[in-house]
Amino acid sequence: MDMVNRAVKMLDVLARLTRIEHALVLMVAVLAGETIALGRIPAPTEAIVISLLVPAFIEIGSFALNDILDVKSDRANAKKDRPLVNNELSIGAAWAITIVAYAAGLGLAYLMGVLPFSIALIFAALSVAYNYWLKDLPLAGNAAIGASMAIPFVFGNLVINGEASQPVLIIAAIALMAGTAREIIKSVEDISGDVEMRGSSTLPVVIGINGSLLVGKILVLAAIALSFLPFPYLNMNPLALALVAAADLMLVYVIVEMKEDALEMPMKLALIAFAVATIGYLLAVIL
After folding, report:
1. What is the pTM of this model?
2. CA 265, CA 247: separation in Å to the nearest integer?
3. Nearest to 205 by CA among 192, 218, 217
4. What are the structural domains of the chain?
């Protein structure tokens, strides 16, 4: 029983280090891109399974690297749920996870051919650049995270037919804006530790917290405005429309609740809205 408890605890530690929920959402985004390209859910061939794992592994590596480089600022920001902050996991173990995850993601992408590997390499390089440098710059780091949420849709589309279709490009633009807004919220939440421990010049440092939250709200509104534009290219299925509408309502609530002293809930809700909308676009193809 003790062995089972230790295993469960370690899985929990790894899930919190790598923010595994993000990897799962990106896998669904890739599947949505592939489904839109095919007009149906693809058969679970080896190539399709590999395509789903590529962004998941890179995302896992990126979050592990983020926690390694941000351990001091995370302590300053009192992020006690982070395994490296509360010493549930060693820095050495986190480095091992980072290296293995990046290697697995890029290695699997290499098996898929030049184009998928090139996209995965850009995705990985962007995440490394973000963790080391871009996250300390105003808006650039926020946009890099937004791009990381948009790329999987395009990646899935390109895996199938070698080009990005119109609805996927629109969905990717929505993901870019919503993801950038979510990261701006995170920059506001982390401003104290980022400035103290990293010397960051993030957006809230440059234009202030209120100005940054205003930019975030504008980007969320833009994402909402575009949310139904993919449907003329898909199926106007009532359930799919309802899911995207529900995601929009969540984002409206995010805008209302986007306040300096209560940012954790809007961040979580924005990710849930992203997942719900992605499932909605997926269902708009298959139903």
Report:
1. 0.91
2. 15
3. 192
4. 2-286 (1.10.357.140)
